[in-house]
Amino acid sequence: MVDFEPVILQDPDSALTATYVPKAGMICTSLSADGVEFLGQRRGLEAYVSAAKTMGLPILYPWANRLGANSYTAEGATVSVTPGVAGVHPDEHGWPIHGVLAGNSGWLVDEKTDNALVATLDWSSQPDLLAVFPFPHALSMAVTLADRTLTVTTTVTPSTAAAVPLSYGYHPYFTISGVPRSEWQIETPPMRRLTVDDRAIPTGDTSPWAGGTETLGETFLDHGFDQVADGSVFAVSGGNRRISVTFISGYTCSQIFAPLNDEVICFEPMTAPTDALRRGTYPVAAPGAAQTSVFSITVH
Predict the structure, then answer these.
(1) Stated pTM of the model
(2) pLDDT in tens, 135-190
(3) Among 101, 115, 183, 284, which is 20 to 30 Å from 138 by CA?
(4) Closest CA to 50 of 25, 74, 69
(5) Which pairing describes strands 291-299 and 77-80: parallel, antiparallel, or unpaired?
(6) Of 26, 34, 13, 36, whose CA–CA distance to 104 is shortest?
(7) How far apart are CA 224 and CA 206, in angstroms?
């Protein structure tokens, strides 16, 4: 029986807490203070584990967003994936979405303190994972909660003399309780928008995105971007609250998602654009050299 015992981190500087469940895919299920929740709970943890229905703050690995087909060729390896097998889940068009780690129980806790947690997944030890992403490596996530800020550091360390493609990301669902979605203010940095087709796959066309502040209103967003600079800040605010996400390093792409049927908005840090494994538009972790990416979430 899998142990879904949560690990609750306490910010020493405030009432903010973060709840992680290592054996459920190292997902952050809650970021809250004084009974106020800042992460969308959506269908809850059980639906995430059983059906990959995202909530809270999950990691999307080894691909963020979608693949444009059920196969890809990367670093000389041609891979076929099958929705419903080895953690692969399809989107509404039948294409793989959000990677394969939803509910994965292979994470092992390396370190734990009152406000910090480090866990590692040995990709090489799981045949199902190697079948969909045949690049042996260790995946480590280190999280720290301090000064009203959750900092997430992700490290990919190749295990062999083969490079590891980096096409992962995170999917935080933010919410401002007690304030209607239509009144939320969103802030985005300058970057480049990627035009997509009716399957949400980039077409190759791009346009500049000036960034700035605007009212979300009744706008539906599902936009992809690249050319996101290190240190870029995305934010949502309403009432007396503001949640900001800083892409500290390693995240050059993003997806902004704001559905009309839920009171959430997502600013998703991504190391590569959608469908990068098929297009070769990804960085790599070189043999013998770990690659680290960092983002943080601050609740003001």
Answers:
(1) 0.97
(2) 999 999 999 999 999 999 999 999 999 999 999 999 999 999 999 999 999 999 99
(3) 115
(4) 25
(5) unpaired
(6) 26
(7) 10
